[in-house]
Amino acid sequence: MSKYFSIDGYWKDDKSEFSGLIVKEFDDVESDEQADDRIFYYGLSETDIQQAIADNGDDMLDFVITSYEEIDF
C-alpha cells in the first residue's frame, strides 16, 4: 500500500511558498479521478523526501521541500 505525504516548501524559480501539497510514494495513478487530481506529485518515498530536504534544493526537482508529514488519504 502506498504512503501519502503532505509537503511544504517553495518553488525554485520564483521562491514562492506552498504548503499542504500531497505527494504519493509510488507512481501508480489513483483509480478515483478526483483523488488523482488532488495529488501534486507521484513517486517520492519518505526516504526521497528526507534526501530532498537534506539536499536543500540541489536536486532535479522544480521545488524545494522544507518539511513533510505522512497523512491518511
Major sheet details: 4 strands, mixed
Order of helices and strands: EEHEHE
Bin the helical content: 10-25%
Count up the domains: 1
The largest beta-sheet arranges its strands as: 3-2-1-4
Question: Strand fraction band?
Answer: 35-45%
Q: State the secondary-structure class.
A: alpha+beta
Low-confidence sequence ranges: none
Rg is 12 Å
Cα-to-Cα separation, first versus last residue: 12 Å
Shape: globular
Beta strands, count? 4
Report the average pLDDT across residues: 92
Q: How many DSSP H or I helices? A: 2
Describe it:
The chain is an alpha+beta fold and 73 residues long. It has one domain. It has 2 helices and 4 strands; from the N terminus they run E-E-H-E-H-E. It has helices at 33-38, 46-55, and strands spanning 4-11, 17-24, 39-42, 63-71. The protein has a 4-stranded mixed β-sheet with strand order 3-2-1-4. A hairpin with a 5-residue loop joins strand 1 (4-11) and strand 2. The longest helix is centred in the last third of the chain and has 10 residues, at 46-55. The protein is globular, with a radius of gyration of 12 Å.
